[in-house]
Structures are given as C-alpha cells and as structure tokens.
C-alpha cells in the first residue's frame, strides 16, 4: 500500500484521538479526591477533542481502508497508547498475562488485514 494522505492521515489522527480518549477515560484516576461530577465533566470535555480527531480519521480513511480495518487500526493504537499511559502515568506494572492477551489481540489484527482465508 503506497504512503499517501489517505493511508497515513487516518493513522496519525487516530493516534491523537486515542491519546485524548485515554486521558479522558483514565486520567481522572490520578485525582481520586476529585468529585465524580468534576471527573465526568473534565473527561467529557477531553473526549470532545477526541471526536474532532476520530471522525475525520474515519472519513478520510474509509475507502482506502474498510470499516473493519479502520476499527482494527483504532484498537491496536488504543492498546498501545493505553499500555504507555498505564505504565508511565499510572505507574502500573505489565505482566506476562497482559503481554499474552495483547499478543492475541494483535494476532486478530493480523487476520483482519490478511484478507479472506483460502
């Protein structure tokens, strides 16, 4: 697949989208004393930026990628961003169970892009 605006830009936008969404979903965990309503409102505001990146990513990428491929790209990016966030921001340790689980998800991504089995 050639490197074009339609092949690269959806991935770039989905990376940005997932950074914002990961912060929206998990960033408030660093502030357990904050009231729930404040966590929800802050997360909602951050998620709004995520939508401004995700929707164009899918619009630009659809046609170059199938819907299943776009979703797979998004999930692989999401896991990658989440692992970095969990380790570097939340200070969590990854285990072999995590590695095996993520490897199985990446194997699923391989089959999505491999095309129909013959």
Q: Globular, elongated, flat, extended or rod-shaped: what is the shape?
A: flat
- Main beta sheet: none
Total helices: the number is 4
Helix content: over 70%
Give the tally of β-strands: 0
Structural class: mainly alpha
Give the low-confidence spans: none
Order of helices and strands: HHHH
The whole-number mean of residue pLDDT values reads: 93
Give the radius of gyration: 16 Å
Between the first and last Cα atoms, what is the distance in angstroms?
21 Å
Approximately how much beta-strand content do the residues carry?
under 5%
Q: Can you tell me about this structure?
A:
- The chain is 75% helix and 0% strand.
- The chain is mostly helical and 118 residues long.
- The longest helix is centred in the middle third of the chain and has 26 residues, at 36-61.
- The protein is flat, with a radius of gyration of 16 Å.
- The two termini are 21 Å apart.
How are the SSEs ordered, and which strands pair?
Layout: H1 5-26, H2 36-61, H3 67-88, H4 96-114
Helix pairs in contact: 1-2, 1-3, 3-4
Key words describing this protein structure:
mainly alpha; 75% helix
């Amino acid at each position: 697949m050639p490197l074009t605006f339609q092949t690269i830009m959806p991935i770039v936008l989905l990376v940005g989208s997932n950074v914002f969404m990961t912060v929206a979903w998990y960033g408030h965990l660093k502030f357990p004393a904050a009231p729930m309503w404040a966590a929800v409102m802050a997360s909602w505001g951050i998620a709004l930026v995520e939508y401004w990146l995700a929707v164009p990513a899918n619009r630009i990428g659809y046609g170059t990628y199938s819907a299943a491929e776009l979703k797979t790209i998004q999930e692989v990016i999401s896991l990658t961003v989440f692992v970095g966030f969990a380790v570097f921001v939340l200070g969590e340790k990854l285990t072999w169970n995590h590695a095996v689980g993520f490897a199985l998800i990446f194997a699923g991504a391989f089959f999505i892009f491999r095309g129909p089995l013959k």
